[in-house]
């Protein structure tokens, strides 16, 4: 792919959606470096929720800005490569890296109240199951370490300590979250329930050191942008401020589910973890212009699921809307989660992920 053409198409697409979607467009994509944050962690509040205070913002270097642009460009190129041999190859796609602001920070703190104690408790019960990933063997004859070896003193070479060996295995689990950002998500409190669930999963994965990928998607924003992917958190570029980006999840337009599943599943398929879990949070069946609907869309989704299950991806569909029966039929009853009570959704989702450990 010619990078010059990519930049040109991307710029035109940005102009095409500027009035409709300026807050989340590529032009406002985050330019925060990995090493600098606008908020500092300062412990937990009485209710267990994260407590933050405003930090002095640091100047963003040109190098950091260029790294962010390069990362966003790579996400676009990789996504286009994934769909190049699928029925979506002619769909005009843009991957965004949403920015965040002070309002997002405040909304995050509001939604996290009462949620963090639940997440922390589940993580506390989960962590003992991860101990098998840490080797209990000690490397002897070290100048320093956590264990004193008295029998080594006789050698008088000052190598009197033993140091625990690093883990020899990769973390056993990687999680991908796909969030349907169709317009119908604005109804009946579904959007806030989805945000709370995504927040809970994100914080749980941070506590348990589980790599996580969180992407939202919508379709038909404009003729120049037929598919939009929003990269809120990505294990290739972890950023403590990703939690605030999650507040940019919105109810937008249509949904092209099969294309979104394919892009996320491919990212998980090439990861080194043994267990790869992809969870789709959706309130309805697929529908996008011109003809991505009905049996055509369902067949595409089912083919995508079968293809990537052969590559080791486990799929789960969390249905939070009126089309639960249709979603169950698409994914299969063994991959279906009926989320009737939206208030219990965050904790339920975290517990399900914990079982995969």
| Beta-strand residue percentage | 15-25%
Low-confidence stretches: 1-43, 53-57
As a percent range, the share of helical residues equals: 25-40%
Shape: globular
Beta strand count: 12
Structural class: alpha/beta
Report the order of strands and helices.
HEEHEHHEEEEHEEHHEHEHEH
Please compute the radius of gyration using only Cα atoms: 22 Å
Averaged pLDDT, please? 81
Which strand order spans the largest sheet, edge to edge or round the barrel? 3-9-8-7-10-11-12
Biggest beta-sheet profile = 7 strands, mixed
Describe the structure.
- By secondary structure, the protein is an alpha/beta fold.
- The chain contains ten helices and twelve strands.
- The chain has a seven-stranded mixed sheet with strand order 3-9-8-7-10-11-12, sandwiched between helices. It has a three-stranded antiparallel sheet with strand order 4-6-5, with no helix packed on it.
- Helix 4 packs parallel to helix 10, helix 5 (about 190-210) runs parallel beside helix 10 (about 345-355) and helix 7 runs parallel beside helix 8.
- The longest helix has 22 residues, at about 60-85.
- It is globular and about 75 Å long.
